[in-house]
Write a structure and sequence with these properties.
Blueprint lengths: L4 E14 L2 E14 L3 E5 L6 H8 L7 E6 L2 E2 L5 H11 E5 L10 H11 L6 H11 L15 H13 L5 E5 L7 H18 L2 E5 L3 H4 L4 E6 L2 E7 L2
Parallel strand pairs: 3-8, 3-9, 6-7, 7-8
Antiparallel strand pairs: 1-2, 1-4, 4-5, 9-10
Length: 230
Amino acid sequence: MVQNQVIQIENLTKVYQMGQIQVHALRGVSFTVKTGEVLAIMGPSGSGKSTLMNMIGCLDIPSAGDYFLEGELVSTLNEEQLALVRNQKIGFVFQKFNLLPRATALANVELPLRYAGINGSRKEKAQAALEAVGLGDRIYHQPNELSGGQQQRVAIARALVNRPAIILADEPTGNLDTKSGDEIMNLLLDLNQTQGTTLLIVTHDPEVATVAERVIYLRDGLIENQEVRA
């Protein structure tokens, strides 16, 4: 694996068995992602982008092919090993925020640290992550006391707190108004530029994809086109 590549995917396929029918969600996808790159993955419904996101996020395993994350072959790991990779190397930002409703912003951001078995510096790390996304004065607020944009900032802080190799953002502005969505995208790009975090954005929104250095277009489980932007 080339040293500056954080992701290497080789001929990845995924076949789901639906009764007597086989559904070919991915049909042999290959690409690499450089460390610090901003990449968007686009495609219509049924194109395979959600399946590909699940593979990259170690939420599912491929039927065939290889997936390397920071040089580690993850396509052959068991569930326990995949959980460890998810905790240590991948930060998730979802459209629906997925925050614990009765927990404070601080407690929500501490969750990945708890799963990683970090105790002594957990609060300090979580608070620093919230300050990095501009919520240093909201650390003890619960989600229902925060705006949609602020809740997504908490989700981003939670994604960053373990210093992952990549942030995987699935429709990160889908539940936000235009102003809040722009602020979230600017925040993600700022984190990419200041911290060197690799950013993968799964989106159907061409406006969101304009921030990417490269766009991969999927259709029918195959890469239809790739567009490199200046």
